[in-house]
Design a protein that fits this description.
Layout: H1 3-11, E1 15-20, E2 26-29, H2 31-37, H3 41-44, H4 58-71, E3 73-81, E4 87-99, E5 102-111, H5 113-135, E6 139-143, E7 149-152, H6 154-160, H7 164-167, H8 173-177, H9 181-192, H10 194-197, E8 202-208, E9 214-221, E10 233-239, H11 241-263, E11 267-272, E12 277-280, H12 283-288, H13 292-295, H14 300-304, H15 308-324, E13 328-336, E14 342-353, E15 359-368, H16 370-409, H17 417-449
Antiparallel strand pairs: 1-2, 1-5, 3-4, 4-5, 6-7, 6-10, 8-9, 9-10, 11-12, 11-15, 13-14, 14-15
Helix pairs in contact: 16-17
């Protein structure tokens, strides 16, 4: 080796060593080799790799030598023992060369210990992140360009009943979740078409679980805004089954409520206690003349149309029922109609509470009791008159009957013809009086009916 070669050899920042191919005897080492290994040139040159135990794993050395003889030039990552720095990891590029008629090996070893440590830490961090992602309470799914599942985390298993082993790389996975071919085409046609992908940015799917049940999943696809290498399509999903069921039940309930509102003459109402907004049925217009444009949705409108003398009492009573958490509220009060007249109403409401027992809603109905109240007053007045008539008539009847009974008892005595004629005339007169009283009573009843 000439002087230039040795100069370059010694100045290399990587460890360089020249050994005999057959015996492993070390011919030359550079300064970097001494620095990394902690040896002096005198301690190494003339020794073999076995003498200084440079290879940590003998199997690695055997593999390296086998590949080197076969290929004449190899690159290999291995672990090496050093005197002062412990085990170091190196990337070794080795080549067989001929020196003075002998086959030698020149190896350049770059210390990659720190790089390996960083890679290990990164791998450990990625594994930790992967484990965390797999366990988050949100469904995480990813597909490759062949529409095969790549990611299926713990939440996916919990919601669907299908395990990761059953789903990942399973070509039939999509068919299991979405048996309807039309739905499958609908999903992937949009996912495959960039101009249509935005339509599936957020979407609710009906997903078939392993036990055959249906779950509603709200998916958000993130591959457009946040692409991940290898994940052609990926997104996160939330099980919204209970929310969807509750919304459908509420929608069905509200439809039934509106059907009932249409079928009844009462003014039905639905009061949201949280927003303080109220809805009135058409009965409000039919009974009291107010349209939706008149009433609006503010509950204060109702307060303002209660008869002033009743308003404070009614408002206080309904607020007390809400604050106490009662189930029902009812009251009778006067209500001002659109034409200015006063209606007597009977109002009753059901107080609906959330799962914590807090009142959140009231539904009920106002019944116009005006005619009924008038009828009650009429009946009461007629009853009072009848009572008065009954008293007078009964007195007259008792008087007439008393005279008749008294006169009839005289027949027990021995009376003259003139006395009998006189008694008979009085009996006829009293009987006629009684007949007139009965006719008067019948006439009065007919008048009261009218």
């Amino acid at each position: 080796m000439d002087e230039l070669f040795f100069k370059l050899f010694d100045l290399s920042p990587d460890a360089v060593v020249v050994t005999d191919l057959e015996s492993g005897t070390i011919f030359h080492i550079n300064t970097a080799f001494c620095k990394i290994g902690g040896f002096t040139k005198e301690e190494v040159i003339g020794k073999t790799v076995f003498d200084i135990s440079s290879w940590q794993n003998e199997e690695e050395r055997v593999i390296w030598k086998h590949n080197l003889i076969a290929k004449r030039e190899v690159e290999y990552d291995a672990s090496f023992n050093t005197r002062i720095n412990g085990v170091r990891h190196g990337n070794m590029r080795s080549k067989i060369i001929e020196i003075a008629g002998k086959e030698c090996v020149i190896s350049i070893v770059r210390d990659i210990t720190e790089q390996k440590q960083i890679e290990y830490q990164l791998k450990a961090s990625e594994e930790t992140l992967k484990q965390a992602v797999m366990k988050i309470p949100i469904m995480l799914v990813a597909f490759n360009d062949k529409q095969e599942l790549l990611v299926w985390n713990k939440e996916c298993e919990t919601v669907t009943g299908y395990t990761m082993e059953e789903m990942v790389h399973n070509k039939n996975a999509i068919s299991l979740l979405f048996p309807d071919p039309t739905l499958q085409r609908f999903i992937f046609q949009k996912l495959d078409n960039p101009s249509l992908q935005a339509q599936l940015k957020e979407y609710d799917f009906e997903l078939v679980c392993k036990n055959g049940s249906i779950r509603y999943i709200h998916y958000r696809f993130n591959h457009i805004e946040n692409p991940i290498t290898g994940w052609d399509v990926w997104g996160v999903g939330t099980d919204v089954t209970e929310k969807i069921k509750a919304e459908k039940a509420l929608e069905f309930s509200e439809k039934k409520f509106k059907y009932i509102a249409t079928a009844t003459n009462d003014a039905l109402w639905d009061w949201d206690l949280v927003s303080n907004r109220i809805w009135w049925s058409e009965g409000m217009a039919n009974l009291f003349g107010y349209t939706e444009k008149d009433t609006g949705y503010d509950i204060s409108w109702w307060d303002e149309h209660i008869y002033p003398a009743d308003m404070e009492r009614v408002s206080a009573k309904i607020r007390q029922a809400i604050d106490r958490g009662d189930t029902y509220w009812s009251d009778e009060y006067r209500f001002i109609k659109k034409d200015g007249s006063i209606a007597m109403v009977y109002d009753k409401g059901l107080i609906i509470k959330d799962d914590k027992g807090k009142p959140i809603r009231m539904v009920g109905g106002m019944m116009d009791m005006t005619e009924m109240k008038k009828a009650q007053e009429t009946i009461s007045l007629q009853s009072k008159k009848l009572e008065e008539h009954s008293f007078v008539i009964s007195h007259k009847i008792r008087s007439a009957l008393s005279r008749i009974l008294g006169l009839s008892s005289l027949y027990e005595y021995d009376l003259s013809k003139d006395e009998l004629i006189n008694i008979n005339n009085h009996l006829v007169s009293s009987s006629r009086e009684l007949d007139l009283i009965i006719k008067e009573l019948a006439h009065k009843i007919q008048e009261d009916k009218r």
